Amino acid sequence: MIFRDVPRSLLRCVVGAVFLCVALVGAAGCGGQSAAPSAAASASVPGPTVPGSSVSPPAWARGMATVRADALPAQAREVLVLIDQGGPYAYRQDGTVFGNFEKVLPKQKRGYYHEFTVRTPGERDRGARRIVTGEGGEFYYTDDHYETFKAVLL
Q: Of 8, 118, 130, 133, whose Cβ has the fewest other Cβ atoms within 10 Å?
């Protein structure tokens, strides 16, 4: 697994919390209300806190646009689970070192970041969507092939 220094129990808790949030959002839609997230829930948050929460984002996410994991596309949430499980991944490039050549993410030593493909329905190739992970437990999402990133708040 690429998160050698992150306790597996912590990763399981984080992914479990993501699924709990997704389940609660889905259950709210079963009562006749729309299951689609509100604009506020799916919008990125460039400020210091997450709307509806008194919790500040972690230090590694400060100053970046953010997105809650439960507001990611379903395919991205599936990739988060696969990352926690250590695969199997759909593409041979998944789990490989992300070079950060665009220098959009914080500068780190080579090998710190790894990338994973987020399938895009209708695309014949890998598409533009990715999740990039950091050795410190960070998760980033891009839907424009590394031009911009959002810190994923789990």
A: 8
